Amino acid sequence: MTGEPPAYHRMYEPMHNLATGKRMLDGRRILVVEDEAMIALDLREALRDCGATVVGPAGTPDEALAAIEDGTVDCALLDIKLGDEDVSAVAVALERLAVPIIFVTAYSDARLPRGFETRPLVRKPYEQRALFDLIASMVNCRTGVLTPS
Question: Contact 26/51 with Cβ under 8 angstroms?
Answer without folding.
Answer: yes
